[in-house]
Design goal:
Oligomer: single chain
Radius of gyration: 32 Å
Shape: elongated
Strand content: 5-15%
Structural class: alpha+beta
Number of strands: 10
Helix content: 40-55%
Length: 428
Amino acid sequence: MKWHKGQKKIAYLLLLCFIASVFAGCGEKQEAVETVKKTNQPYAAVVSMEETPIVDYVVPQLTPNVLINRCGYRTGGEKVAAVKASRNPEYFRLVDAETDAVVYRGRFEKVICDEETGIYVGNADFSQYVTSGSYYLETDYIGRSHTFTIEDNLYDRLFEELYSSLVTDCKEMKISTLESVTLLMAYEWYPEIFADADKDEVPDVLAVLRQWISRKLEEKASEEDVLFSAFLAKYSYVSQKYDKSYATDCLRQATAIYDKSQKNIHKDAQSFLALTELYRATGTYAYRKQILDYKDYLENGGSFFEEQEYLFGAMTYVVTRQKVDVDLCESLMSKVMGRGEEISEIYMDMVNATNAKNNGCDDILKKASQLSCANYVLNNYKYNRIMEELADYLMGKNVKSVCFYPDEGIRTGYICLLAQLAAVHKAS
């Protein structure tokens, strides 16, 4: 075959490129060998193809389509999961996580299709299964859930874990004063869930908080801390049957701190809580009179529930045995119960597993605190069940299957939520 002059020229250039690449490779190899000899390191000559890898994609976040309470379910309680799917789901299986054996089968209920997204959502109710253990839910083509437990004393365990965390923070002086107030309120309302591990006939929580008080009084900041005054007055009231002398000293300190904080008279939620606690503990007319200065705001202000100190102060005023203004007391009682009914009407939208309408964890936990107060006034099965629904959502039964507890959200709300659920199911 004869080549034209132009073809010969191209072939010649290609041959030169090939020879250059071969010798370049040999040069790199020779340099690599020399590097090994000089460093005596067998891997010193290894050179990556790219010193900095280029990643131009994002790994998608995978979330289960079967949504459960990741902290678990009560053995004898309602156990409901949610599912989201691109086609109509039919059956689900409850599987033992240790053996992978199917222990329960059921049909999805209340399945609806979202018109905008075309996504099917439904419920998997496995309440009839009452054996303790570790499990997961699965269904054809949709997938499986996270692993969860079914246990007899679920809320006892969860509250004990939260309580242990609070005790640690007490000892390290990391607990907030409002958290201490809330913990003490939980003890006052549900003493049966607080242990006396050392068997000295004094609940351990009072001993822990007593140590916290001693260290708190050493801080100069506490001298004008009106919320600390409220705490001391509450502590005095609930602990007096165990140590009358110390309770009296706490009340004296509470009075002094409150009086000092009021050099510049002002009305706010923390001062109101302090007044109600001081009035309940002392019956002093001056405190009763100052409480009535809040009457117009409490009766006509629609937003006072948003500040927990107002809510807790209202509860103290409602339950006190001291003489009260009947109209104000009835108004506060009515507002607390009314808020409970409001929450019962909107909670299903708030904790909808696939399309929730709420303002985040703090919003839900504030509602939990408000509902716990309503439930303390009138123990209501409906409210108990709503509290469980709130817990389910916060602990994983949400669109992203995220367990917010215990790291996200206000702890005062978790104290109210878990203390009530632990107390209710301990009694049942």
